[in-house]
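Figure caption, in words: inputs first, then the predicted bound structure.
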Amino acid sequence: MSGVTNASPLDDVSTTGPRESLLVQAARRNPGARPPVWFMRQAGRSLPEYRSLRQGIPMLESCRRPDLVTEITLQPVRRHGVDAAIFFSDIVVPLAAVGIDLDIVPGVGPVVAQPIRERADLDRLIPLDADAVPYVTEAVQMLVAELGETPLIGFAGAPFTLASYLVEGGPSKNHERTKALMYGDEELWHDLCRRLAQISGAFLRTQAAAGASAVQLFDSWVGALPRADYERYVAPHSRQALGAVADLEVPRIHFGVGTGELLPAMAAVGAEVVGVDFRVSLAEASRRIGPDHAVQGNLDPAALFAPWEAIEARVRTIVAEGRRTPGHVFNLGHGVLPDTDPGMLTRVVDLIHELSHEPQIELSDQGI
Ligand code: 1CP
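Bound structure (coproporphyrinogen I present):
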C-alpha cells in the first residue's frame, strides 16, 4: 500500500498521529505556525482524475464502493497536499440507506421519488444503524490506514438541510414547501427533524467510530432562516445530531451558507469549530461567536477564477485575520465550484504551507 504521507500507520506513535495534526489542534484552539487547509468539495468534479474514475458509475453506487470511496477521497490529498481529507460520500447517502427512494441526478443533485410532506410519510424514515452502511465503516478504515498522519473528516447533513431535500423533493432555491410545513405544522416538523437528527448523528458516529479524526455537520441551506426561527425550529435538532458524537472526542465543525446572523446560535448547539462563508470576515465572525470556538473559512470559491495575484492577496488577508481568532482552519466559504482550475487550489495550499516560514504580518500593516 502506498500511503500519502511519509508516516506509516504502523509506526504511528502518538506524537505524530492525526489527533496531533494541525487540523485537530486548530479545532482545539491550539493553533500552530500556520492554519491547516482543506477545501469543501475538494474530492469531486473539479478533478479530471475524479471524472475519469466515475465514468459510467452512478454517484450513489460510487458512494457504496469502499475501493472507489478511498481512491476519490485520496485524490485531492495527493494532488494538492491538503492537510485533511474529507470522506467521499453525500449527505443523502444515509437517507438512501434507511430506504428512502432517491437518486443523485448528474447536474441537478439529490432527487426524492416521493417527498415527505404528511405525518404518514414519517414511517418511511426509520432509524439508521451502522450496520446499514457497512461500506462507510469499511471505507473509513481503509482510508485511515492509507492516510497516516493526515486526518480524515467525516460528515453528515444537518436536519434542516436534509429536511429541505426530503420535503421539496430536490434542490430548492426558496425552500417554500419546507417552510410551509415548518410554520404550518410545528409538531410534524419537530417529529420529522428528530428522526433526521438520529440519522445524521448515527452517520457521524459511524464515521468517527471507524476512525475519522473530525466531523463536519453541513447545514448548507439554513441561512434561509432568521435567527429566532433557527433557535425554535432547528437548533434542538442540530444539537441532537452533534451530541451523537460528543463522547468520541472528535472536533465538530458546523457549517452553513449565508449564516452571518446565525453564527452564535450555530456555535451554541455543540461544535468546536464554526464554518464561515465568504459574506462575513473571519475577524467579524469570530467576534460574533466569541473566544470559545475556532473558525473555518472563508475564501469565496468564485474568487479562485480571478488572477493569481488577486487570490494571493485574499488568502494572505484571511490567514492574517485567522491569526487573531482562537483557532483557524483555512477553507473556502463554500464548496469548490466544478469549473475551478485545480492548479489554483494547489497554489493556495502551497502558499499557506509557505506562510509558516514567513514572519507574521500584523493586520494593522494591511489596513484591516
Ligand atoms: O469533497 C467533498 O466534499 C466530497 C464529498 C461530498 C460532500 C461533503 C459530496 C459529493 N457531497 C457533499 C455534501 C453535500 N451534498 C452537501 C453539503 C455541502 C455543500 O453545501 O456543498 C449538499 C448540499 C449536498 C447535496 C448535493 N449532492 C448537491 C447540491 C444540490 C443543490 O441543492 O444545489 C449535489 C450537486 C450533490 C451531488 C454530489 N455530491 C458530491 C458530488 C461529487 C456530487 C456531484 C456528483 C455528480 O453529479 O457526479
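DSSP finds 14 helices and nine strands in the chain.
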